[in-house]
Specification:
Strand order of the largest sheet: 1-2-4-3
Structural class: alpha+beta
Oligomer: single chain
Shape: globular
Number of helices: 3
Number of domains: 1
Helix content: 25-40%
Largest sheet: 4 strands, mixed
Distance between the termini: 12 Å
Mean pLDDT: 88
Strand content: 15-25%
């Protein structure tokens, strides 16, 4: 798995968890930015990756959630999942 990635807002250290859907630092005081995303291979994990990556690119919450609080990234993850996108483990 990757350990870091550079997005528009800076370089992020990537951490995987099974406890929360995701968190992404906002650039500011810390020199090192952290992104926590859901581990796994399911649609929920795909949504977590998309959602936090868009935050790291600078997209505001108001563009990722509609008026009812539904997640636009969840709808995109559902579309990609239906198109056959799946996480594949790299062979060592």
């Amino acid at each position: 798995m990757i350990k870091s990635h550079t997005f528009r807002r800076g370089k992020y250290m990537i951490h995987f968890t099974g406890r929360i859907d995701g968190v992404c630092d906002i650039p500011g005081n810390p020199d090192v930015l952290d992104m926590i995303i859901l581990e796994g291979k399911d649609k929920r994990a795909l949504n977590s990756h998309l959602h936090e990556a868009l935050h790291a690119e600078g997209y505001p919450d108001k563009l990722m959630h509609d008026e009812d609080g539904d997640s636009n990234t969840e709808r995109i993850a559902n579309f990609l999942w239906r198109c056959g996108w799946r996480r594949v483990e790299k062979s060592k």
